[in-house]
């Protein structure tokens, strides 16, 4: 006897995208996309899919190396997708989830973002004098990256003015910049249960007194480019 009852299959809810925020920018040419699955109403597991620009769909089952938490995922599971190297410029990324039964698809979530050219001047030891403009560039770059991750920009404690900000305050300004970097690292590394695409722990170099040294500035430059 064949039943004439047909079970209705409902697609998963659209995934929640923490980053990138649409229209925002990063300096990282292998950017992280932070994804949380929605609810699958039929109780099935889900496959997360990502497509960048006009490329092919990449998914958490067939391409596990691209996802921090891969395979078939349950409801409310967070995973980080790290892209292959992308060109500087504007990009579009599309996200969706499929159920594991007949692979019915959720509503697609589309985000646009931009990869920017590194904004930093080379700081050469014993040659380059770190000036107000260098610190201002760091501040601007960090607030751009904070926005990419849907984090509030830093309200810096003091305006830096060329020719007026005293040298003795440079260590304080560097410490403030480092705290902003630490905020991003904490959010990224704490997003999911996997350490696959975490930002490596930072051992900050000694700041010293007076103008920051070349190695202190270079460490900050390198970190911003990997956030």
What strand order characterises the main sheet?
2-8-7-4-5
| Shape estimate | elongated
Order of helices and strands: EEEEEEEEHHH
Structural class: alpha+beta
Number of helices: 3
Number of strands: 8
Strand content: 15-25%
Radius of gyration using CA atoms only: 22 Å
Task: Walk me through the structure.
By secondary structure, this protein is of the alpha+beta class. Helix content is 22%, strand content 19%. It is built from three helices and eight strands. Strands 2-8-7-4-5 form a five-stranded mixed β-sheet. A three-stranded antiparallel β-sheet has the order 1-3-6, with no helix packed on it. Helix 1 (132-148) packs parallel to helix 2. The longest helix is centred in the last third of the chain and has 20 residues, at 170-189. The protein is elongated. The N and C termini lie far apart (60 Å). The model has no long low-confidence stretch (mean pLDDT 92).
Give the topology, please.
Blueprint: E1 16-19, E2 24-26, E3 32-36, E4 46-52, E5 58-59, E6 78-82, E7 89-99, E8 109-115, H1 132-148, H2 170-189, H3 214-226
Parallel strand pairs: 2-8
Antiparallel strand pairs: 1-3, 3-6, 4-5, 4-7, 7-8
Helix pairs in contact: 1-2
What's a concise summary of this model?
The chain has 227 residues and is an alpha+beta fold. It has helices at 132-148, 170-189, 214-226, and strands spanning 16-19, 24-26, 32-36, 46-52, 58-59, 78-82, 89-99, 109-115.
């Amino acid at each position: 006897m064949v039943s004439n009852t047909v079970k209705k299959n409902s697609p998963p809810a659209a995934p929640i995208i923490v980053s990138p925020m649409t229209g925002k920018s990063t300096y990282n040419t292998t950017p992280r996309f932070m994804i949380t699955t929605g609810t699958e109403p039929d109780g099935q597991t889900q496959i997360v899919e990502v497509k960048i620009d006009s490329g092919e769909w990449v998914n958490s089952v067939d391409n596990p190396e691209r996802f921090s938490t891969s395979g078939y995922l349950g409801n409310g599971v967070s995973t980080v997708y790290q892209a292959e190297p992308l060109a500087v410029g504007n990009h579009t990324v599309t996200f969706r989830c499929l159920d594991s039964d007949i692979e019915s698809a959720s509503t697609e979530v589309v985000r646009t973002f931009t990869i920017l050219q590194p904004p930093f001047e080379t700081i050469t030891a014993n040659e380059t004098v770190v000036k107000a403009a260098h610190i201002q560039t760091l501040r601007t770059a960090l607030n751009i990256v904070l926005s990419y991750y849907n984090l509030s920009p830093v309200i810096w404690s003091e305006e830096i003015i060329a020719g007026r900000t005293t040298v003795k305050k440079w260590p304080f300004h560097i410490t403030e910049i480092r705290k902003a970097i630490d905020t991003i690292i904490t959010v990224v590394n704490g997003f999911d249960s996997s350490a696959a695409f975490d930002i490596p722990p930072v051992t900050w170099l000694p700041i010293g007194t007076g103008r920051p040294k070349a190695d202190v500035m270079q460490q900050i430059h390198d970190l911003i480019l990997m956030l």
